[in-house]
Amino acid sequence: MFLWLLVWFVGLIFTGSCVRSIFFYKSLTIPDIPIQDLWYSMFIGIYQDLLAAILLLVPLACTLLINRNLFRITLVLTISIVCLVTIAEVFFWNEFGGRLDRLVFHYLRHPIEVLVFLEDQFLLSIFMLPFFAGVYLIYKFYIRFFPSIHTRQEKLFAVIIIGLSTCIVIWHVPVRHSDFRPANELAENGYLSVLRAARVDETQWNKNYDDLSNQLKLYTEKKSGPKLDVKHVILIIEESFAGSIWNQKELRKKYLPQMSALAEEGVLFDNIYATGSRTTRGLEAILNGYPPLPGIAVNQRSGFQKLPSLARVLHQSEFLPIFIYGGWPNFSNFQEYWKESGFVEQRNRNDFEEETFQTSWGVADEYLFSKILTEMDTLTAVHEHIFLTTLTVSFHRPYDFPPNRIQFPSNERKAEYAMAYADWALGEFYEKAKKTEWFNDTLFVIAADHAPRIGGSADIPMDYYRVPLLFLAPNKLPPKIVSHAGSLMSVPKTILGLLDIIDTENFYGSNLFVSDDNFVPVEHDYHVGLFENDRLTVLLYGGGISEWIYQDERLLPTVPDLNRAALVSTFFSSAHKRFYSEQSPTQ
After folding, report:
1. 108-122, 323-337, 391-405, 423-437: lowest mean pLDDT where?
2. Structure-derived torsion over alpha carbons of residues 192, 193, 198, 199, reported in degrees to the nearest 10
3. Is 455 exposed, middle or buried (0-12, 13-18, 19+ CB in 10 A)?
4. What is the DSSP letter of 299?
5. What are the pLDDT digits (tens) for 163-183?
6. In 104-135, which positions are buried (b, 16+ CB within 10 angstroms) versus exposed (e)?
7. Which of 71, 136, 453, 528 ranks highest by number of CB atoms within 10 Å?
8. Residue 214 pLDDT > 50, yes or no?
9. Can you say whether residue 243 is alpha, beta or left, with left for phi > 0 and alpha for psi between -120 and 50 degrees?
10. Which residues make Cβ contacts (< 8 Å) with residue 517, sequence separation at least 6?
């Protein structure tokens, strides 16, 4: 019995250490992180893996208490979970720059779509046989050490394991030993991270900071911005259209020539930040003008219908709101979300021809834009004002796109090539739109929902939240570049300001054409922060404050300012209370 336990703990700690060694190697490329912090993470990780190993013994302990004959089946299932999570941990780190987190629950709500994505992107079925073969071999190895004779020690062992696991569930808190996010992530354990996420009650505001201050930051706009005489608004939300390719001029010129050309025709806000790292966060900011509360985006929470909505206020001003999306309508609850947000009409991948080029995420961008042109021609013949919003999907794994469109090969599944295709499709759309009757009466707004990846060392990876935001109105908006910081959350107020429409929904944010408030709320992994005047002040989940400042274009830790932390606390607690209050946020 004790030999089996020893083998169990050694095996899981060894597996965890191997995974952590991979992450250690990847973290060495991140600037500024002290190497001693990374080594310390490796030792803390052993402690975390030990706790996880105890938790994973619970189903085995329960079978020993209830029916010992179920032990073998339970052991196979437990080993399968360990192997699956180990693979998922590596994937998650490569994709999201951290351990398994609350996204696990989001994906579990859409198992069919997720399986389709995984098969399309990673050929999941090919690895099923090797996976189960590996599980079987591990099982045969472990079962040799388990005693075949029933003993009283088994029941005592089961009671102890269940008791220890209960203590871990109730009292375990993350170990924060470094100022740098990757070092803390390195020390983490995926099982414990997911467990912690399951314990979070997102309806309750973190009370650790309520006594910091009661002052509230308000936006004040001292002058009136430009007004546009347009009949229609087309809002294009480009999936992940940011990151190093956008930020580096050489790469932008190579892969994004169309967006670069469009930027010279309109007003480019080149210092805009997303509020988070997921599409739902981008939609929450762009369509709802709402700050990011700790946890999942508010448009994914019960009561999202109360959110302020750009579509709703424009509909009240006689615009017909329509959302055109080439992906699955029910993934992330999109269809209901857009309906409740005031979009009177919707189109999704079911409205496209079957022979249209599609990936698991949806139709290729060129067909999406072709649909938009057709819909605009039809709708403008009947309605005087159209508000059309779309969300693209081509710049997303598996990075497939139609051949012979751009100079780069379509079959290599490289992210930069897929982004170049998305750029080409955008440019083609705009050129074709120029030939329509409605073009000169239309305001085009192009925004990325978030960057493709996160990285860096700050608790909230601000360097990787920067996204482009472009306003185009033919012969109505003189081209220029605006460099002051701003948030995607300000898109609704900015559009309403340009259209000279009163904000009846009480959006957060400000009109970017008249405000240089530089007030940017952000969230990551339950941490919330405000970026202002090159400083990022973060309220850490569970307690604590960190502050970061740009020096030589690098975000480095500095001594926290309690007054700034008080402002952060008041701002986010106010937004939290507004969402969870019984009255509508628009009242």
Report:
1. 108-122
2. 70
3. middle
4. G
5. 989 888 888 887 889 999 999
6. bebeeebeebbebbbebbeeeeeeeeeeeeeb
7. 528
8. no
9. left
10. 219, 486, 510
DSSP 182-230: HHHHHH--HHHHHHHHHH--TTS--GGGTTS----------S-------
What CA–CA distance (Å, rounded) separates 176 from 37?
11
Residue 113 CA to residue 535 CA, distance in Å, equals 40
Residue 330 pLDDT: 87
Alpha-carbon distance values, 253 to 247, 260, 264 (Å): 11, 7, 13
What's the half-sphere exposure (Cβ side, CA atoms, 13 Å) at 553? 1
Specify the higher pLDDT residue, 101 or 157.
101
CA 523, CA 538: separation in Å to the nearest integer? 9
**Residue keyed to tokens 């995926």:** 190
Residue 423 pLDDT level (bands cut at 50, 70, 90)? very high
Q: Which amino acid is at 74?
A: T
Tell me phi and psi for residue 346, to 5 degrees: -140, 150
Structure tokens at 230: 């347009």
pTM of the model: 0.91
Q: Please provide the size of the chain in residues.
A: 587
Residue 586 buriedness (CB in 10 A; 0-12 / 13-18 / 19+): middle
SS (H, E, C) 526-585: CEEEEEECCEEEEECCCCCEEEEEEECCEEEEECCCHHHHHHHHHHHHHHHHHHHCCCCC
> Residues 548-583: pLDDT tens digits?
998 877 889 999 998 889 989 999 999 999 999 854
Q: Which two tokens stand for residue 180?
A: 């740098």
At residue 151, the pLDDT reads 67
Q: Are 369 and 303 in contact (CB under 8 A)?
A: no
H helices within 219-327, ranges in order? 244-247, 249-255, 257-263, 279-288, 310-316
Largest CA distance in the chain: 86
What DSSP string runs through 56-107?
HTHHHHHHHHH-GGGHHHHHHHHHHHHHHHHHHHHHHHHHHSSS--THHHHH
The two structure tokens encoding residue 399: 């990075």
Query: What's the rounded Cα separation, in Å, for the pair 112 and 98?
Result: 25
CA dihedral 153, 158, 159, 163 (to 10 degrees): 140
**pLDDT of amino acid 506:** 94
Sheet holding 545-551, edge to edge: 520-524, 527-532, 535-539, 545-551, 554-558
pLDDT for position 222: 54
- The pLDDT assigned to 1 comes to 57
The answer to whether residue 131 scores a pLDDT higher than 90 is: yes
From the CB of residue 535, how many other CB atoms can be counted at a distance below 10 Å? 17
pLDDT at 149: 58
Give residue 512's identity as a one-letter amino acid code.
Answer: L
